[in-house]
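Chapter review: from sequence to fold.
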Amino acid sequence: MSTKLLEGERALVTGCAGGIGRGIAKALKDEGATVLGSDITVPPAEDGIDFLAADLAKRDGWKGQLEGALAKLGTISLFVHAASPRRLKPTRRFPSRRRRGTP
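The token string follows.
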């Protein structure tokens, strides 16, 4: 008898179009949770994860996301914020530690 660890839980995962957020959403779904993924763009729903388009970089983007999530899930028992800060400047590159003229 196998029991799913998160059976009956409802999860909202931001940054779910790819990368870590997508992996977390898949793992939660595999453990029995109902998962709603959120990102700026909605990817194809090939793995059974429902998606909600939301831009959290906008001033009130979180309000639309929360309202949409509550409308789809009813309640949220798990929240994972995996969205990356897209509007930040790129990090500066550090110079190589090698000295000039050495291989």
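Two observations follow directly from the output. Residues 10-78 form one domain. Strands lie at 10-14, 34-39, 50-53, 78-81.
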